[in-house]
Amino acid sequence: MKIRSSVFASLCLVIEVFGIVLFLRGFFPVPVKSSLSSKSKVSDLPLEPLEGHAANSSRIPPPLFKRVVIMLVDALREDFVFGPKGKEFMPYTRHLVERGSSHSFVAKARAPTVTMPRIKALTTGSIPGFIDVVMNLNSPALQEDNLIWQAKTAGKKVVFYGDDTWIRLFPKHFMEYDGTTSFFVSDYTEVDNNVTRHLASTLKRDDWDVLILHYLGLDHIGHLSGPHSSLIGPKLLEMDDILKKIHTALISKESEESLPSLLVLCGDHGMSETGSHGGSSEPEVSTPLVLISLAFKRRVGFETPEPVEQVDFTPTLALGLGLPISQNNVGHLILPVFEENTLREQLRFLHLNGFQLSHLIKDSTPDFEKDPGYEQFRIAEKSHGSWMKLYLEGNTSEVLSNMGKKVLKQYMDALKSMSESLSKQLGKYDMYSMIVGMSIVLEVLFLLLITMAEALSGAAEVDLPLSSALCSLPFYLLCLFCSSIHVMVCTSTESTCYFCSLSWALVFAVIAFFSSLLCVILSIIGRKLFWAKPQMKAQSSDSGFSELDILLLTGTLGHVLSLGASSFIEEEHQTWYFLLNTLCLAVFQDVCRKYFREKKSHRDLDENSYLSSKDDTPTVDYSSRTSALAGYEKWLALVTPLATLVCCRMLRSLNQTGVQWAHLPDLGHWLNNSEHIVELSLLAAASLVLIFLLVQRRCSLVSKIALGLGLLGVYSYRAAVGNVLFPWQQDGRDISKGTVEARFVYIFVLGILFTGAKDLLRSQVISSDTQLKSRGLWEIYSGVVLLAALLFRPHNLPVLLFCLLIQTIMAQFIWKELQYDAAQTTIMHYWFGQAFLYFQGNSNNIATVDISAGFVGLENYVEIPAIFLTAFCTYAGPLLWACHLVCYLSSERERSTAAIGHGCYCFALLRSIPAAAYIILVTALRYHLFIWSVFSPKLLYEGMHTLVTAAVCVFFTAMDQNHAVRT
Q1: Most Cβ neighbours (<10 Å): which of 374, 428, 558, 937?
Q2: What are the residues facing 292 on neighbouring strands?
Q3: Could you tell me which of 622, 706, 644 has the C-alpha nearest to residue 835?
């Protein structure tokens, strides 16, 4: 069966996306959990160690606190409290830290530093899996043992106000609650006012035991304008004032209660230098943990806070409230919190924590007895029993005290060792699902490679022997063989595999599909082996690669090989910048050789004409091309690659990205400084004007007017939200959400897209007008540009401008005049798209995703539009270059009718090679030290990039089918 190259490439990418999804489901492991079916209970607690006698107690020592207020400020970095900003904007909090009855720590969060996994860490003490980044958008109910469930079971009444993620995680757990949407980042005022408005009445009441307040405004400001925004200071002052009110209200009731209260100030995660979070940089993982209570000694001065793990908060608070520790907790006690307790109570607390960790070690480690932490705990437990014997005998000598301190140290060393061991065992990989997904991806890649000659032929068609493959004996034998393997794996494995949990009908469909793909590949290979000699003879005159082909091939393979090193992944933008610069120099050499070379001899010209007559593909006679070009056009062609180099160098200065140099100031930081708002306004206005001039040339009059008004609306939106100024506007005015202005732009985006689609349909149905089709495509492209202009931050508008400028001059003076074939042009577009992905400030760190783009023009969080807009803004660079390629290949009349099919196939191949190679690499490096901080985020990016490329190829296919029908 023969199908067009574009259809074949699109189908391959869709299948590859399915394989990647299956691989991701197996790769991101389920966190380590206890084998106990029920949650922890007081009756399950171990006996107090006592050597040679009956145990004295199996209860938890009495609680330290009567009630607890947890004030969680989203994205609160530790320097916002302990640094210069804390001293300036949080004076009351700093006074408590330096002179009050408090303990201060720097709590280290683990990647991924997004809200939902961090809430899980704070309440369960476990380290969530990396896949929780995706699930953060729609949090399911938390089923495992946690602090909130334990508090409710113990009869404590819990009240919650704030981020509605808590309500989804803990349904029916709160006596009273009021949730606010966490994803609408444009709102940083009402989202906090909705929490604070309940405070006065709640603090006066005595019918609650635990009060949780989750403030979101600081996080939203960070997403909108970064950690150095002028809005950060007022928000910190607001948080400081709220903490003062809570602390004052708790102190006023201390005399009425038998036990003191505890006020906790903490953050779920920090904030990167760009204002986002999700990665593992120091500002993202470092959060303050301030515990304030009259149960603690008063401080005599500011001391540098000690670092602790964020999960250490869970067992500390549980035992502080007299609750059992959650079964899946991997944290250990923060001992300074219990320093006022007796030595016996401290040892009992540590024993309970060690008992829980040792049981988790047993469940997760086959040879747990050899674990150093477990061995240390058993020794400490025996020493504890000996100490208890002396203690109960009434020994009060100094020997008993020294022995108790020694046991205390033994317990702490054991707890730290077990905690570290468990933290490294994030989960068990589902290797079966990973292997099945990887096999599908590799089959697709191999199929693309062996059909390259047919897909890039003049006919742009691929002959797939489906009927012979599906009706053959090997197909049925393969189905039987794979089914038997599936049965063996699913019946013999100890852990449940995701692929085994699927229905048999779905599993058999996947097996049949896998077997059919393999049979098709074998059939094509067999056909090529039988027909190898005739093909070689037929293609003997068309052998050899140009220097540009060799560069494009080696560059693509070199990038794939670089993905095996964590440093190259962190700094991948450097790879693409290098490849792009090398490409520009190669093009410059090509221009010099073809426009400014010496005159060919008549013999050379005769040979060229003879070869051109024998070759079906169009060949360029560069001597006649040179004579046809005007002198100044030659020089413009010569300047084009150099101008592109200059543009790329300027864009590199705009956004520092990666890891090593991301902390250094760049032009973007300078422009976003409130002192330079005038310069940013002028730059944004100039960029929008030039964008209009570059885009409007090929649009209809109606689209030109809509584009102009839309770009004016873009500037108005940015002025409304306070990013830029109109000349008559005063700085410091009230800032709105800009909802009306953004929706004004959306109307013009939809209008331009509708106009372009209408022209495409007219060129297809009514008349075969090539010019009308070309205009329709360029109008759709202009609509995409307008949407990107709206979503880009003002300082990134030059990225969009230079993207359009480079596309214009390269199309006019390089691709068109030198007549590069569709494959070469496609690879160049792909390289430029990858470079512009990083010019925007993106990286392989999740923290660089600008989620504020997902809420432009929205008054409330709507999941589908928010996801689409965020994904579009992130991949705007590759999308713009892919759309330009479709428009360029379709509008060039001299191009072969197979050009779009060739371009689509090349896009699919360029995406499949790194995706397949990276899946193999992460499988081999799954126990690497940086697997969760470096390799896993990149894996998510690869999966998303493949999905975006599949969507682009579907658009390619639609254009190719229209062209095929019309011709």
Answers
A1: 937
A2: 102, 263
A3: 644
